[in-house]
């Protein structure tokens, strides 16, 4: 049986159309597959990059924590040293004040009349046995007094 030419042309056109549609479908399938692969690779690369960033952040955080700990220890050490220095300074100041008080008392004692001296008429009088004499200062004048305190050091 003979197939008319229009049928042959129609069949050829239908075959070409089917081939074109198949080619188009196959191309879209390949493009979708390639897009999925690129998406998967991008997601994997992003995940790897996120893990690296997380690891770097953890490393940075631990380094900051270590630095902070060192700074706290240094500050604590400095604070303890300052406290120790302050304590030593206070001890030294107390010692100096005690020495100054001792010196002041010693100096005041040089103005106080002893058992062989009296203040008579506002002048220091020395007594030795039954002999009385005036005390003279460095300027050669009699030393004035009030009560049992002389106006100049006696010793």
Task: Give structural notes.
The protein has one helix spanning 5-111; strands at 117-120, 123-128, 131-134, 145-146, 149-150. It is mainly alpha-helical. A hairpin with a 2-residue loop joins strand 2 (123-128) and strand 3. It is rod-shaped and about 180 Å long. The protein starts with a helix and ends in a 5-residue tail after the last strand. The mean pLDDT is 92.
Brief descriptors of the model:
about 160 residues; mainly alpha; three-stranded antiparallel beta sheet; two-stranded antiparallel ribbon; 1 helix; rod-shaped
Q: What class, by secondary structure content? A: mainly alpha
* Largest beta-sheet details: 3 strands, antiparallel
Series of H and E elements: HEEEEE
Give the termini distance in whole angstroms: 162 Å
Percentage of residues in helical conformation: 55-70%
**Using DSSP, what is the number of strands?**
5
Number of helices: 1
Q: How much of the polypeptide forms β-strand, as a percent range?
A: 5-15%
- Mean pLDDT, all residues: 92
Residue stretches low in confidence (pLDDT < 50, at least 5 long) are none
Concise overview:
The chain is built from 1 helix and 5 strands.
Describe how the helices and strands are arranged.
Layout: H1 5-111, E1 117-120, E2 123-128, E3 131-134, E4 145-146, E5 149-150
Antiparallel strand pairs: 1-2, 2-3, 4-5
